Amino acid sequence: MHKTLRFVAVAATCALAGAALYGAGAATAGQSTANSTHEPYNIGLLVKDIDSYYGTTADANGVYQASPASPYAKDLARIDAAARTYIDRAARKAHHRGEKPAVVFDIDDTLLLSLDYEKRYNYTYNSATWAAYVNKADRPGVFGSAELVRYAEKKGVEVFYNSGLSEAQRTAAVENLKKIGADVNLDADHMFLKNAANPPSYLSSCATPGTWTCTTVQYKSGTRKHIEDDLGYEIVANFGDQYSDLDGGYADRTYKLPNPTYFVS
Q1: Nearest by Cα to 244 from 222, 214, 264
Q2: pLDDT by residue (tens digit) across 130-184?
Q3: CA proximity to 124, closest of 261, 22, 243
């Protein structure tokens, strides 16, 4: 997850909270977002709303976890149920037409939950602490995520990963995904990570060796275009916790997972 473009303050989540997409930190008539001339939503209250949404608690090891009974978990369960129904139908149609159906998953906060990092560092980002956190390879899975990956595979749908993690973090990402039970197609042909030193030719419009100017949308949509146009798959569904994971086309349907803790443009 390359977060240098994200808003590093908790206040940046106000836009998501005020939109009431998933009920965390919803603005009222007297609580405007930072885009107005009125006082923004109070950071302390917003943090409490986020904790309530996730049901955040520290386990015996002091690691912050989301509760399986939380509003967050319930929202994920609704998305998961709808996605399963759709994948089953889309897979059957694609196979009937002789197509190769595929699904694409983001990784950070789509498959692997980063709540402990966000909570521990007060919803700010530092490249060194983030790299150390990722390399520990012990993040819990987003509720239902590993099961959905395996479900797609069971239905004959090819699973791909399209992540903002760097190429240097590949080993840790694979290890962590295996730990949560998402051990499906974790090879380099299916897991696409950012490689600024040696970017793929299909991103040549915004990346050359040693120079990376791709936005998140350019990188992720360009990768999906490669999966469809060059590899010959039909992406029936694309899953991500950021709109930048989903924008840019090359997917029949998109699924936005809840994440009120940061925003990647």
Answers
A1: 264
A2: 999 999 999 999 999 999 999 999 999 999 999 999 999 999 999 999 999 999 9
A3: 261
* Paired tokens of 163: 């992540």
Would strands 207-208 and 57-58 be described as parallel, antiparallel, or unpaired?
Answer: unpaired
**Which ranges of the chain would DSSP assign to H, the alpha helix?**
14-19, 43-54, 71-96, 115-120, 127-136, 145-154, 170-180, 216-225, 243-246
Looking at domain 68-256, its CATH architecture is 3-Layer(aba) Sandwich (3.40)
Task: Express each pLDDT in 87-136 by its tens digit.
Answer: 999 999 999 999 999 999 999 999 999 999 999 999 999 999 999 999 99
Q: Phi first, then psi: what are they for 24, rounded to 5°?
A: -95, 120
C-alpha to C-alpha distance for 45 and 32, rounded to whole angstroms: 14
Find the angle CA(192)-CA(82)-CA(22) to the nearest 5 degrees: 80
Cα 157 to chain centroid distance, Å, stands at 20
Would you kindly state where each structural domain of the chain is located, as residue ranges?
68-256
